[in-house]
Amino acid sequence: MKKLLRTLAAAGTIVLAFAGSAAADHTVKVGVIAPFSGPFAIWGKQFKNAVEVYVAQNGKKAGTHTVEFIYKDSGGPNPSGTKSLAQELIVRDKVDYLGGFVFTPNALSVAPLIQKAKVPTVIFNAATSIIVKKSDYFVRPSFSLWQVTVPMAEWAWKQGIKTAVIAVTDYGPGNDAEVAFRTTFEKLGGKVLDAIRMPLSTTDFGPFMQRIKDKNPNAVFVFLPAGPPSFAFVKSYNENGMKAQGIQFLGTGEMDETTLDALGDAALGLTTAYHYSGAHDSDKNRAFLKTLEEISPGAAANLASVGAYDGAHVLYQMIKAVGSDRTKAVAAVKGMAWESPRGPVSLDPDTRHIIQNVYIRRVAKDENGKLINQEFDIIRKAVPDLGLPN
Asked: Mind listing the domains of the chain with CATH numbers?
């Protein structure tokens, strides 16, 4: 390990010396770390598809610089393995930038490394608020759980929901979601009857459902990672008669577009607050979906898609501005605003986190009978990360 760090330090010095020239037509390498195998492999596929959509629409050059993406498989929540991949990308592959990162522990594991090596790193997903504070080189154009959960709690109170049980996956984003919902809901006058933290490895949610049913709240607020955990929880919610008992489902990204069809009509009417729906009504999103269908027929667009697409946009703007002179890259995009498939967005110049609209959505069927997350209101416009000081 000591030898590798010495090599990394030397490589960093060499790359920085070369970066000063920021030569025209220099190929700039971007390493993208995500799961491409295992139960969360859909994330890597969504990331790669979205980056390819961006490249197809904007070309392989950012300004005068050719951009090359190099993908590495983290295999899921794997902090030590992710750190090793980042070291490999920086030292062996000599990347100028990093991107990707689905899980908070993985993103946090690389923070000391990128701070020392001065490698700008664009977070495509990992949603715990504290991440961007761990390195000056983190930029996050995805979202945070505070950002979407506070508006959810506010909306719930306005709908007459007075009592709730909180059920979250027990790791960084879930803990953020629990605190954000409880703090906001109780401040408004609501009562949290129970707060349940479920292990990330949970596959049987039956015991948790019984605990929720015994409390008989007006609603259950849920956070789970998109993919197999969310699918299993929602399936259990329906099988245990929660909706029939009058316990309303409130969530964020659990109605993920990649699992909606599998959930079927049981998902109809379930309500979430989020920053994007694949059914978002805008020309920008329609263009995104059109190119995505051309690149990967039948692929669904979801939070991973829009996070990676906008992540590619931020990377391109950095590279266009400074090439491989990465010491100036983050400063080049602070305060930047653009039109995303999710709507108007910008990067907070102080926190380096995205500012965006948060929508209230309900699962419905479109004109073709396809299940979608139908946005029916903007809960808040231009929302910063409400878990970070501003």
From this structure: 2-143+281-352 (3.40.50.2300), 145-274+358-383 (3.40.50.2300)
User: Which residues contact residue 225 at a Cβ distance below 8 angstroms, ignoring those fewer than 6 apart?
Assistant: 40, 103, 169, 173, 200
Residue 182, CA distances (Å) to 128, 359, 378 in order: 16, 20, 21
pTM for this entry: 0.90
pLDDT score recorded for residue 181 = 98
Residue 66 and residue 27 in contact, taking contact as beta carbons nearer than 8 Å = yes
Contact, 341 vs 308, CB < 8 A? no
pLDDT tens string 41-83: 999 999 999 999 999 999 999 999 999 999 999 998 999 999 9
Q: How far is the C-alpha of 345 from the C-alpha of 358, rounded, in Å?
A: 11
- Of 17-21, 81-85, 202-206, the least confident: 17-21
Give the span between the Cα atoms of 119 and 306, in whole angstroms: 23
